[in-house]
């Protein structure tokens, strides 16, 4: 059974200290990223942003980004701060003779999450997800909405005033991330998923027409040579949930059927989470058993509706 979550008003501006920025500069910045990430940066325009993943040779996600061009020779990659240093180190190993310089630019930029009417202080009307608008020296990237509420990422040079609008708590912003249905890769879930296990192919995070990148064959094979056995779902529990926790189905007490990818306290009580879950376990919820957190005897979990449709024809 799928239930609808209790919603809360999302309106305001939240600081985003959990995110950092990798800057890629140089004549070959775009070409370098083209060979490393799941997204097509060669075709990326200056009015667009992209969701992208960095994968191992086995197609497992090592990091995820919201990336965009500040110019034709400078790309910013916004990622989880806890993965920035190891990701920067690993990417830098493959620069070789490319005319590209990678650096941690987190101290050079201020990151804010904007929700609801707060976006109107910069943009007159909503735009589709991954649209990028430039305003002065700042950049506004429209994200996937949360329960129908518009969301955007504001990236501006450090020291510039924050956008106008009421304060929004970081906790409520994190909950909006969960409700958007798009999970960031953080340290506890490195190497746990191929992109489709988090629905990245359905939310603009994978380009299947671009050239090679680490893990590309595995990602493509997962898409085109068989049914995907795991997808991302929204779940709710009265108990607290944490990234990396296992999920079980009562029909099989011995093996977990899912893994929590992103979790946040829900304003109406309890906790909401994005869980990468076996499709069969999701389909049999409430019929041949129930979903539980941590063990087959753990707190109950209830499925909620995804905020977007899963794509079956790429």
Number of DSSP-assigned strands: 17
Given helix and strand content, the structural type is: alpha+beta
Spatial order of the strands forming the largest sheet: 12-15-14-13-16-17
The separation of the N and C termini measures 28 Å
Kindly report the oligomeric state of this protein.
single chain
Q: What is the mean pLDDT?
A: 93
CATH-defined fold name of the domain at 2-180: Gyrase A, domain 2
What proportion of the residues form beta strands (DSSP E)?
A: 25-35%
Main beta sheet, described? 6 strands, antiparallel, barrel
Can you identify the CATH class of the domain at 2-180? Alpha Beta
Summarize the structure in words:
By secondary structure, this protein is of the alpha+beta class. It has a domain at 2-180: Gyrase A, domain 2 (2-Layer Sandwich), CATH 3.30.1360. Helix content is 14%, strand content 32%. It has 5 helices and 17 strands. It has a 6-stranded antiparallel barrel. It has a 5-stranded antiparallel β-sheet with strand order 2-8-11-10-9, covered by helices on one side. Strands 4-5-6-3-7 form a 5-stranded antiparallel β-sheet, with helices on one face. The radius of gyration is 19 Å and the shape is globular. The chain starts with a strand and ends in a 10-residue tail after the last strand. The relative contact order is 0.18. Residues 1-6 have low confidence and may be disordered.
Brief overview, please?
By secondary structure, the protein is α+β, with helices and mostly antiparallel strands. Helices cover 14% and strands 32% of the residues.
């Amino acid at each position: 059974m799928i239930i609808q979550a209790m919603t809360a008003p999302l309106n305001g501006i939240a600081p985003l200290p959990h995110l950092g920025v990798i800057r890629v500069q140089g004549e070959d910045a775009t070409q370098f990223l083209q060979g490393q990430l799941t997204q097509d940066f060669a075709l990326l325009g200056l009015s667009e942003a992209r969701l992208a993943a960095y994968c191992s040779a086995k197609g497992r996600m090592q990091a995820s980004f919201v990336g965009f061009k500040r110019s034709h020779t400078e790309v910013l990659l916004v990622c989880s701060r806890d993965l920035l240093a190891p990701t920067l180190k690993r990417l830098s190993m493959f620069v070789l003779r490319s005319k590209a310089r990678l650096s941690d630019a987190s101290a050079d930029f201020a990151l804010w999450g904007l929700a609801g009417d707060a976006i109107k202080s910069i943009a007159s009307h909503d735009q589709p997800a991954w649209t990028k608008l430039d305003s002065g020296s700042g950049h506004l990237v429209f994200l996937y909405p949360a329960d129908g509420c518009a969301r955007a990422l504001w990236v501006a040079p450090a020291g510039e005033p924050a956008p106008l609008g009421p304060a929004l708590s970081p906790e409520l912003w994190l909950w909006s991330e969960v409700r958007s249905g798009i999970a960031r890769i953080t340290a506890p879930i490195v190497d746990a998923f191929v992109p489709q296990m988090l629905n990245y192919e359905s939310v603009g995070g994978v380009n299947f027409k671009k050239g090679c990148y680490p893990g590309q064959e595995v990602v493509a094979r997962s898409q085109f040579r068989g049914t995907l056995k795991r997808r991302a779902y929204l779940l709710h529990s009265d108990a607290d949930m944490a990234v990396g926790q296992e999920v079980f189905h009562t029909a099989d007490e011995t093996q977990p059927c899912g893994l929590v990818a992103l979790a946040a306290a829900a304003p109406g009580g309890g906790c909401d989470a994005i869980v990468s879950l076996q499709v069969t376990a999701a389909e049999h919820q409430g019929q041949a058993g129930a979903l539980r957190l941590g063990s087959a005897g753990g707190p109950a979990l209830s499925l909620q509706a995804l905020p977007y449709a899963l794509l079956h024809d790429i």
